[in-house]
UniProtKB/TrEMBL annotation:
<protein>
    <recommendedName>
        <fullName>Phospholipase/carboxylesterase/thioesterase domain-containing protein</fullName>
    </recommendedName>
</protein>
<feature type="domain" description="Phospholipase/carboxylesterase/thioesterase">
    <location>
        <begin position="25"/>
        <end position="247"/>
    </location>
</feature>
<dbReference type="InterPro" id="IPR003140">
    <property type="entry name" value="PLipase/COase/thioEstase"/>
</dbReference>
<dbReference type="InterPro" id="IPR029058">
    <property type="entry name" value="AB_hydrolase_fold"/>
</dbReference>
<dbReference type="Pfam" id="PF02230">
    <property type="entry name" value="Abhydrolase_2"/>
</dbReference>
Amino acid sequence: MSYSHNTMGSGSRTARRTFEFGRTHVVRPKGKHQATIVWLHGLGDNGSTWSQLLESLPLPNIKWICPTAPTRPVALLGGFPYTAWFDVGELSADGPDDWEGLDASAAHIANLLSTEPSDVKVGIGGFSMGAAMALYSATAFSLGRYGNGNPYSTNLRAIVGLSGWLPGSRCLRNKIEVSHEAARRAASLPVMIGHGTCDDVVPYKYGEISAHSLSVAGFRNLTFKNYEGIGHYTTPKEMNEVCNWLTARLGLEGSRYSPNGKQLACCTLDGQTHFWDPINGFLMCTIEGHQVIAGGSLTTDRSPIDVQAVASSVSGSGSFPLFCQELCKVHVNSDSAKFQKSSTCFKFFTTGNRPNPS
């Protein structure tokens, strides 16, 4: 499949670049189809390599789509042709970004997801340059548009970036802060970033910079994992954590989250249950109201008023008493790990012992 983009040349002439994408490999779900993830390879690789690994993962409800990037000259490699999602000259927050290439690849990825059933959750993941592409797609989703201004309409539900970086990180915060809707979308999108501390291809600092840039721009549902002593490759431990994270964030069947009595949980008005780590301020798990929590029963009543019905379906260490019965909303400030109130109506409860009334 090819994509054409216009770029301004000298004077008033317009130059057209056409991107020819390679073969797309698809791994069909072995169980009920609940989610589709487009997974993107790194520089010089192809979709076949990753499709073989992804097929072996214990995620039977996910369909994997593994496209192959166009072959193009890459400045970082002396202008020689490689499969690449976009051109890159250097890894630098101040370096130029190939917006045309980024937009063409992001549009190709969105097109691959456009035909998925409406009840199937969709997401994007990738390794190295593929991770950069996934994170760029996350910013396009939050802003509601590509870098060229065209609308971005894919409703992403999860982003995974391993050993990569965030293109355009230097100006992301300013773009999101001026739009309430962009801030809302950014806060709602779960993002996982993983990076090895000994990566000598995409240095670890770029993983940290990417996570920080997304966090300060308003991506509140962000998980950053560092892997001590690991270079520019994935490990079974990292892929296992990716599996667990996707299972929890996408609410896949087989996800059985067991609270241990140390989480703060909130029941939202649309029937979801969010489990927060009150010490570190991390969102640990999101469970749809109708799904099974380990040791509990089905919660079919999605009413926002019947918090006790949700509470009674969750088992952890001891009971699941009501923590707070008044209507309020709590959000986590990840910098200070403090819970603060605002005006929107939520109800909250905890898996720990019921506090004494003050």
